[in-house]
Design goal:
Strand order of the largest sheet: 1-2-3
Structural class: alpha/beta
Number of helices: 4
Strand content: 5-15%
Helix content: 25-40%
Low-confidence stretches: none
């Protein structure tokens, strides 16, 4: 079985603790040390108005966030939850 850790890059409301470059890199390194196979992120950095009105949220660009995660680790795969 392979396991992934979700990086909470959608929590832009909480500031740098979750969405800074250092936070993404630190969490990815911690996942790697803990033996996880990959890290993943949500994929809707610029949601539609309807999504926001129904309780949706902003998030970091998935490719940028995953680039920081990949650069900080040596073996952890970087994946996205969904890209449509």
């Amino acid at each position: 079985m392979r396991c992934s850790v979700l990086l909470h890059t959608q929590r832009v409301d909480l500031g740098p603790e979750f969405v800074s470059a250092e936070a993404v890199a630190t969490t990815a390194r911690a996942a790697e040390r803990a033996g996880f196979d990959s890290v993943s992120v949500t994929d809707h950095p610029f949601p539609q108005d309807e999504w926001m009105r129904s309780g949706g949220h902003h998030a970091l660009d998935p490719f940028v966030a995953l680039s920081f995660a990949a650069a900080a680790t040596s073996i952890v795969a970087a994946t996205k939850n969904e890209l449509a």
